[in-house]
Write a structure and sequence with these properties.
The chain is α/β, with parallel strands linked by helices and 761 residues long. Among the domains are: 115 residues; 261 residues, P-loop containing nucleotide triphosphate hydrolases (Rossmann fold, 3-Layer(aba) Sandwich), CATH 3.40.50.300. It is 47% helix and 16% strand. It is built from 23 helices and 22 strands. The strands form 5 sheets. Strands 15-22-21-16-20-17-19-18 form an 8-stranded mixed beta sheet, sandwiched between helices. A hairpin with a 2-residue loop joins strand 8 and strand 9. The longest helix is centred in the middle third of the chain and has 64 residues.
């Protein structure tokens, strides 16, 4: 400590700033320490200090998420499952399998997945369901759809206070036909219910308004083309409005293709799952069901396509072959009828037998004639009869011989005709059999793709998952709040732990840790109406912040005998650190102990201490310095018992030069003799030089730092400036410390215990 009458020495700031005017024991000084790599307690304290910020951000995001979950349109999902089967190579063979092997088409699952998404399938589903026509009730923006779902499907009274045509219930309209010029695709038109199954068509940015009846088809010429419209059904009260759009067919097909989620379940399992999401459960189910039916129909059609083409060809050829067969049979029958033959082989055998029999009879007639010539002449009737019989037999033999000679040529002709019949018969029979087999294949052919699970109408929406949305919002809010808390701490750079000050200055210099007072906050909010600042030490003397000041009082009384005078100055690096709060309440605490205390508001810039005691600033320090008035004329006595107060007085214009007046030193020496303690509250250290001027007259200077506001650079710079002005600060008061995790009341290492290890010097 610098003894009275001795000049103050200037001590270098780096590497060890001389914060204390009394020597300290090196054995109890914390040596250089590295910042911990992972300070879990510090991180938790940062979260605890910013709990309201984190909670506010979390509450805001959660509120937005809840509102979104309530008003968001539900999304439904329909799905189907398809199995692509592989034909067994060892399957038993039969006439059908052999005939159909030519037409079997095997496809991998990946190919079937692409076919499901193809325009060939999707386009027909779009056309069958008329998806290019979009008609829906006109709901109130954002929340109208939610209110409509709560109405139970009943018809509502349209409009908001009778205007707008908004619907709030289960209104429906069906439009099977709506064609517009290509340039008008995507435009929004309006259907307004007029009652009695009538409607009004308007909108689309055009002056087209016409009334019509439900169930009739209308054609309206426009400059760009023709509008065709047919409203099949409309369930709504008069005044209800519907929005109507004719979407592009290509865009609709592409939209459904992009919306289809097709995946194979497992690796090379052949199980394909198809999902489709949409805002309407019925529409989503209908679209996916139609896609599934169209895919299965086209897949089966592809399986029987070649068989059907072959069958069509055979159906054309079979009548021709049948006519050819009939013509061959006719020619054969004509040949048989013309030649009187049935079986040439049998006929040849019979002819030879007849010829042999005829020759036998001829021989017998010759023998008989020879025998009769012995008794009769040639003219005898018996001989004439025998000769005539012989002639007949000779004629028969000649005829038989002629017939036998013609048999080879007939047989050749018969063989040719028979061959024609056989060829035509075999060909016609084979083609008939093939046609019958193809008919069986066409009817009984089963595709190698089967639908395992058909789509079913979804009962509950998959989105929004309100519980999940709220949970994610809470997590997101906590994350963003935590991120903002650490960013705020990083940007502010404020010290939130007094131990950091001691580690920075390598000495136990924190005399007191003043916790944050929620009571002071409440009192400040109440006092804004009357303009008088609350004095916490008088209103709530048991507050933890006041208790911490009492601890500092004990430490100060222990150290004051070593000061060169009883003038103590509280200096803060910047504004907003609570220096005036500390000065006023500490003065009240000292006065409550029976000490005679004088509090001087030396902040000639914007001093506000007079508001704590309900006095005016006009008669104060500036008057005593300028006019040389005696101290008794500017002192406000007993603002609190044992506490006197000198306000700033009229704020002068040349404030810095003003404090260099010799009357300041004389005033301080004069009042110091009449009080046990003189407290001086100067302007901020780093903003103006007033505190440096006043500090030269003080026996002890304490730097007031605020948790989360004062950083290490400000403390270091304050000490450097005081040292350069010949002032050695006594210590640090750490103000407004937020409640810390794992601590009870004030910081356990500070207060009176903070002085352990310092010698009297």
């Amino acid at each position: 400590m610098t003894m009275p009458g001795e000049p103050q020495s200037l001590t270098p700031v780096v590497p060890r700033p001389p914060l204390l005017s009394v020597p300290f024991d090196p054995r109890v000084v914390d040596g250089p320490q590295e910042e911990p790599a992972f300070d879990l307690k510090g991180y938790l304290n940062t979260l605890f200090d910013n709990r309201w910020l984190i909670g506010g951000i979390t509450a805001l995001i959660t509120l937005v998420a809840v509102l979104y979950a309530l008003v968001a349109k539900p999304v439904y999902e329909a799905n189907l499952m398809i199995h692509v089967e592989e034909e067994s190579p060892n399957a038993s063979k039969n006439i059908l399998s052999e005939a159909s092997s030519l037409f079997e088409t095997k496809k991998a699952a990946i190919a079937e997945m692409e076919l499901l998404r193809s325009r060939m399938v999707v386009s027909r589903a779009v056309d069958n369901l008329r998806l290019c026509i979009d008609v829906r009730p006109k709901y109130f923006p954002i929340a109208g759809f939610w209110f409509a779902n709560q109405n139970g499907g009943a018809l509502s009274q349209p409009g908001l206070f009778g205007y707008g045509g908004y619907v709030w219930g289960g209104e429906k309209a069906e439009v099977p036909l709506f064609e517009v010029p290509e340039a008008w695709l995507g435009r929004e038109f309006t259907l307004t219910a007029l009652g009695k199954q009538r409607f009004r068509f308007s909108g689309g940015g055009q002056r087209i308004v016409f009334d019509g009846d439900v169930g009739l088809r209308y054609r309206v010429p426009v400059p760009e083309g023709t509008i065709e419209l047919k409203v099949e059904r409309m369930q709504a009260n008069a005044g209800a409005r519907f929005t109507l759009r004719r979407m592009s067919r290509v865009a609709m097909i592409q939209g459904i293709q992009n919306a289809l989620m097709i995946t194979e379940q497992g690796k090379q399992s052949g199980i394909i799952q198809v999902k489709l999401q949409g805002e309407s459960a019925r529409r989503t189910h209908s679209v996916l069901s139609e896609i599934g039916r169209e895919y299965m129909r086209q897949n089966l059609a592809r399986k029987t396509e070649e068989a059907e083409k072959s069958l069509a060809f055979l159906n054309q050829q079979l009548p021709v072959l049948k006519r050819q067969l009939e013509q061959a049979e006719d020619r054969y029958n004509q040949f048989r009828n013309r030649h009187g033959t049935v079986d040439l082989q049998e006929e040849a055998r019979m002819s030879l037998a007849q010829a042999a029999a005829a020759r036998t009879r001829r021989i017998e007639l010759i023998q008989k004639k020879t025998e009769l010539l012995a008794r009769f002449t040639e003219d005898h009737p018996i001989m004439v009869a025998i000769n005539r019989q012989r002639q007949e037999v000779d004629a028969e033999i000649a005829e038989i011989n002629a017939r036998i000679k013609s048999l080879p040529e007939l047989e050749q002709d018969e063989a040719r005709l028979t061959r024609d019949i056989k060829v035509n018969t075999d060909l016609y029979t084979a083609l008939s059999n093939t046609a019958q087999q193809l008919r069986l294949i066409s009817v009984g052919r089963v595709s190698n793709v089967r639908m395992v699970d058909a789509p079913i109408p979804p009962e509950k929406p998959i989105k929004p998952n309100r519980a999940l949305i709220v949970a994610l919002a809470v997590v997101t809010g906590l994350f963003l709040g935590t991120l903002l808390a650490f960013a705020r701490k990083s940007l502010a750079g404020g010290i939130d732990d007094p131990y950091r000050i001691e580690r920075l200055l390598r000495a136990r210099v924190v005399y007191a840790t003043i916790p944050h007072s929620s009571n002071q906050d409440k009192l400040m909010r109440k006092s804004r109406r009357d303009g008088i600042l609350p004095l916490l030490a008088r209103i709530m003397p048991e507050d933890p912040a006041v208790e911490s000041l009492r601890s500092f009082r004990a430490a100060l009384q222990f150290s004051m005998p070593h000061f060169r005078n009883n003038i103590v100055m509280f200096a803060g690096p910047t504004r907003g650190l609570g220096k005036s709060f500390v000065s006023a309440n500490f003065a009240a605490v000292m006065a409550a102990s029976g000490k005679r205390v004088l509090l001087i508001d030396a902040d000639l810039r914007s001093g506000q201490l007079h508001r704590y005691f309900g006095v005016k600033r006009d008669r104060g320090l500036s008057s005593a310095i300028v006019k040389g008035s005696p101290a008794k004329d500017v002192i406000h006595h007993d603002v609190i018992e044992n506490l006197d107060f000198i306000p700033t007085g009229e704020l002068p214009s040349n404030r810095s030069e003003f404090l260099l007046h010799l009357n300041l030193g004389g005033l301080l020496q004069q009042v110091a003799c009449g009080y046990d303690l003189v407290l001086v509250d100067p302007p901020p250290l780093l903003e103006v030089a007033d505190a440096l001027i006043i500090g030269a007259h003080a026996g002890a200077v304490f730097i007031v730092a605020r948790s989360g506001r004062t950083n290490e650079a400000q403390i270091n710079e304050s000490i450097k400036r005081l040292n350069h002005a010949g002032v050695s600060p006594q210590g640090v008061l750490f103000n407004d410390m937020a409640p810390r995790l794992g601590a009870y009341g004030a910081h356990p290492r500070f207060g009176i215990a903070g002085q352990i290890g310092f010698s009297k010097g």
